[in-house]
Amino acid sequence: MLVFSVMEMSLNNFFYPKNIAVVGASNNPKKFGYELMKNIVEGGYRGKIFPINIKEEEVMGFKAAKTIKEVQEKIDLVIIAIPAGFVPQVVRECAEKGIKNIIIVSGGFSEVGEEGKKLEEEVVKIAKENDIRIIGPNCVGIQNTEVSLNASFVMRALPGSIGIITQSGALGASQIYMATSEGIGFSKFINLGNACDVSIPEAIKYLADDPQTKVIALYIEGVSRGKEFMEALKYATAKKPVVVVKAGRTEAGMRAVLSHTGSLAGRDAIFDAVFKQTGAIRVETLQQLFNVSRLIVEQPPPSGKRIAIITNAGGAGVLSADECAKHDLILTELTEETKNALRSFLPPIASVLNPVDIIASANMEVYRKTVETVIKDPNVDCLLVACVVPTFLGMKPDEHARGVVEALKNVKVRKTVIACWMAGKIAEPGKKILSENHVPAYSCPKEAVYALAKYIKYLEFKKASKNVR
Amino acid sequence: MLVFSVMEMSLNNFFYPKNIAVVGASNNPKKFGYELMKNIVEGGYRGKIFPINIKEEEVMGFKAAKTIKEVQEKIDLVIIAIPAGFVPQVVRECAEKGIKNIIIVSGGFSEVGEEGKKLEEEVVKIAKENDIRIIGPNCVGIQNTEVSLNASFVMRALPGSIGIITQSGALGASQIYMATSEGIGFSKFINLGNACDVSIPEAIKYLADDPQTKVIALYIEGVSRGKEFMEALKYATAKKPVVVVKAGRTEAGMRAVLSHTGSLAGRDAIFDAVFKQTGAIRVETLQQLFNVSRLIVEQPPPSGKRIAIITNAGGAGVLSADECAKHDLILTELTEETKNALRSFLPPIASVLNPVDIIASANMEVYRKTVETVIKDPNVDCLLVACVVPTFLGMKPDEHARGVVEALKNVKVRKTVIACWMAGKIAEPGKKILSENHVPAYSCPKEAVYALAKYIKYLEFKKASKNVR
């Protein structure tokens, strides 16, 4: 336990540094040291920043030092963005200055062959001898939105509760882009690159203990320390959901992994077993990774699997019902009271069975009333509201979403609500309103039900494993 | 054969009418007769339009008649949008005037119970006795972009080569919205509603013979005439691909179908067998329906299943490779010549294996050169170009797509090319450029490879069934 809390503290210094030195910080937009410095500055980091550059007097308005040693103050975090060959020397200088946390973003290490491997080993040796923790090399860096720290090459994430650990910097970045489009934020972003020191299991445990993180989203291709990985997952899933994409499932994928991260992907069946055993939520695509994660951070956990579907298009109801059945969700029987209440305001050709089909003429008011009525039904654990946004009868493309949001404000019941807003770009104003009000809005019944079903599976696992104890 | 060509001709009158009478045309925006009239007028229909309204003198600038009979000229197509109870009388007047084609958009027929059913039977009886063909009732109508005819409640589709038949008006509409967002068009749009006369099998055969239609996209929930349906599919797939979503796969879905279109969904295994036997391409979601259809109309058919992947992010390569393997596509071995050519301009840490990983620094020029080089490789049948749109090093979000498009213009080889542009909204400018240049751009490797694999399956079916003959 002592070892663990020391480790924790040392990772904390990466994410909550009081100041940062950027080795290789540059005014030249063609250099990675420029990009990194820019992201830290524009990200709004509030600690001191020390650019280190042999040639420049100042970088982006900050006085530059020629070397780390020139900086008078104690430095919490050093980020290195210079050619690989020069890195060991800088790490040595860091050691001499008593620095304990270094992120090496530079590439040119074990990922490029024997020579780079030697360089990486040299760096690790210096670090070990001096109790230095290293993230990287060959990574895009980290983010911590709680302190407006964007120490990465990646677009700044919005503040939020998804903690992401990704073995692919680019795919991690794509999650941030995707989430930002929907107004969803992250707590921490972690890309470890070659992971010569700080490892994925360690990062998982760190986020498991991070109070800002409600769900851990993981993209991995291969794992070198299988046992540690499994233990970290177990540790984490006991505290919060972990959603994971494990790529390299097939022979072809494994070969691609080998040429990408150089790690061995390992037999997929083994990973599958590990995820099942630890209760990690395995999904297939990055879209699903995001879909499930956002549901977890935005909605209360479903208390059961009895679902009600509200739709303005019969076809969307049918597709949704199919997906629910496929995932063992139960299309609930609404109470007579609910049905009668619905009949009192819905047109006669509407259906008050489940799916509740409020037909194409349903406007904001009808959506509001229907959601208010159905969500109160004691037979309903969770609610899927679908809409094929109509453009006729003078309806506005966002009004149906407004109806849903208003209903949720009016009722006191807190149940899991997801939305499926269909019809391409025309559905976007409505999706935006739903997202802003923390109702995850998907564009397809398959995606929507999938996310909900995965969340329910995790909760069932949690319940079952508690019963065992 | 004679019967068939008569039928064909009679359907042609629905889609190529020289003039149209709209019964119930209205100036009141709250009425469906307004919406319909507006869509016909704004859609740019070039034939004569006769609004029929008992109370109004003129509708949207067109002189109104009180009844069909008042119109002096011969009428090709009548569209009826008045309450159900009045419809039989109007159909009778049509019969007296010798009209042969009627679309009834009004609801209130067999879908609402016994009384409506009687009304529908009455309408069918009059029609049969007078050789009148009827589309509807309870439908959103039809479109024919070739003659700018939007006789529906649905947004006008762009002109194109996808012919769509949908049992759900709203979901059909959502396909148009989705396609329009991507600049993709349709030849015909057909929603038959209760299909009291013109049936889905008939519509399938009509589109099979329609020279404007390159692919038939079908959404169905249930089929009343199973044998005819199967024959129509066989007839159509011999001429062009048919892509189909069959909803109501599960018990829950079937119950939803019953309350939606009132049709019996039928055992899913039977449908599955029918699709396999006829070579219809079955997909699960509306997104996939669109994804596959657009690929077929936009790209030349793949000559085989040897695929090359180009990516600027290793992770995207791994995910794509996994999907290819899952669908039995072959990650091809590039020739030494290709590899050497790639090595001559790619950075040393790039991978010239397949997936070709041109790394995150790849700009427009690198994309252009790589596509030009790989597409010429004789071992390559089709190409997946992936991009996680980067935002650093001053790169523009659309430049990678421009590189691909330029490459395809420069090389003379015509091979199937699909794109996967990842990273949410930031990928959209690139996707737009690709779409405008007929390269289908998907947002996820799973979707991209799925579409390609389905297309290849259809071609293999075609080849195999030819060999049998």
Description:
The structure is a homodimer of 469-residue chains. The first copy, chain A, is of the alpha/beta class and 469 residues long. Chain A has three domains: 2-135, 3-Layer(aba) Sandwich (Rossmann fold); 154-298, Rossmann fold (3-Layer(aba) Sandwich), CATH 3.40.50.261; 306-464, Rossmann fold. Chain A contains 16 helices and 20 strands. Chain A has helices spanning 2-15, 32-42, 87-96, 114-129, 169-181, 200-209, 226-237, 251-260, 268-278, 286-298, 314-326, 336-343, 364-375, 399-410, 428-436, 445-468, and strands spanning 19-23, 48-52, 58-59, 62-63, 77-80, 101-104, 133-135, 141-144, 149-152, 159-166, 186-191, 215-220, 242-246, 281-283, 306-311, 330-331, 356-357, 382-388, 416-422, 441-442. A seven-stranded mixed beta sheet of chain A has the order 9-8-11-10-12-13-14, sandwiched between helices. In chain A, strand 12 (215-220), helix 7 (226-237) and strand 13 (242-246) form a beta-alpha-beta unit. In chain A, helix 1 packs across helix 6, helix 7 packs parallel to helix 9 (268-278) and helix 11 packs parallel to helix 16 (445-468). The two termini of chain A are 22 Å apart. Mean pLDDT of chain A is 93; it is low at 1-8. At the A-B interface, helix 5, helix 8 and helix 11 of A face helix 5, helix 8 and helix 11 of B.
